[in-house]
Amino acid sequence: MIERYTMPRMGAHWSLENKFRAWLRVEVAVCEAWHELGSIPGEEMAEIRSRADFDLDRILELEKETRHDVIAFLSAVEEKVGPASRFIHLGCTSSDIVDTANALLLVEAGWLIDQDLAALLEALGEMSRRYQGRLVMGRTHGVHAEPTSFGLKMASFHAEFSRHRERWSRAIEGVRVGKISGAVGTYAHLSPEVEEITCRNLGLQPDPISTQIIQRDRHAEYFTSLALIAGGVERLATELRHLQRTEVLEAEEGFAKGQKGSSAMPHKKNPISAENLCGLARLVRSNALSSLENMALWHERDISHSSVERVIMPDSTILVDYMLQRLASILASLVIKPDNMDRNLHSSFGLFFSQRVLLDLVQHGLPRQKAYEMVQQVAMKAWERSEPFDELVRQDPEICAVLSQQELDELFDPAYYLIHEERILNRVLGGAP
Hints:
Blueprint: H1 2-5, H2 7-13, H3 16-36, H4 42-51, H5 56-66, H6 69-81, H7 94-130, E1 135-140, E2 143-149, H8 150-175, E3 177-178, H9 192-202, E4 205-206, H10 217-243, E5 251-252, H11 272-293, H12 304-332, E6 335-336, H13 338-346, H14 354-363, H15 368-385, H16 389-395, H17 397-400, H18 405-411, H19 421-429
Parallel strand pairs: 3-4
Antiparallel strand pairs: 1-2, 5-6
Helix pairs in contact: 2-12, 3-4, 3-7, 3-9, 5-6, 7-8, 7-12, 8-10, 8-19, 10-11, 10-12, 11-12, 14-15
């Protein structure tokens, strides 16, 4: 399933080939900085520009011997470049290259996910407007509360994913940082100017201070932001799963021709996509915890973070890219059941009008607790007898002694619950105040 949705794009981004291409971009950019500062002659720089390359299989072959991926990479590049390769990696340590290249990879992966968020927001905005005025029962604790609209329900998710996108933008900026500062960050064999020129040419900001690495609080923000996005996907997926329950069935996932829901029960149509997304959110959250664990390293650096990042960098970005695309696909084929929405709205005997009656009694001068007890007694009768709440209210002598039949008619109008819907939608989606 992941191959179908994301591998041609985000998966390829994290391939070994692309990782080493990012390393090469950084190495050449460092050489360009040295050249700009006069330390690499023009002829040798031209050789580096034209010949800098590698063969992936050769890197892997060399790594078996060296047991060091950066040295294997450099050796493979040297074989391609020739004598001018003596200037490659000048003054650098491995993390200068790896951390700066990871910044490139994380930022570019972030841009892909930002495109997914934009597409999802467009879909949620369209659904919010399309289902404006479509009354549905709002539920708290899983129990009928008061009516809302399906448009407002979708607008709530639009507002959340707008926040996710804002956070994600900040997280991308947080990792858009390179370091070319040497073994412990002192520039002993480099210079701040080399770092500044290198980062400028790569579209990065220099880290104001680094050790042998860029500090991992930046990465932790990135991966916790991914976890928050995954949590947003899970919240919407959980809503869709509940809406597809047999007892509710206000919306259901599209069911393709020839699709099967159960090996045993031919009638089954299950919310499998939403369930998959809820499961994947757990993986993204666990990876975020690993990124937090990576923050505390020994002194100027140890290597305990490296093995973790080789897993979570591709896995979390691939997963979230996939999750956002799959969620958008679910929404595009979502089947809405307006008849069931109406059925459910009225299945609790109109008890959702209870607060309107309560507040009107208070406005007529009754103490709130007295009014509450009067309305609650009638509401409990409606539950116990399965009779319409409005009819029992009209038969209650205490309430009718305070409220006229005409006043009651006005209280039992479901459209009342959406009197501010347009204003809320405009606040979320933009429009007239």
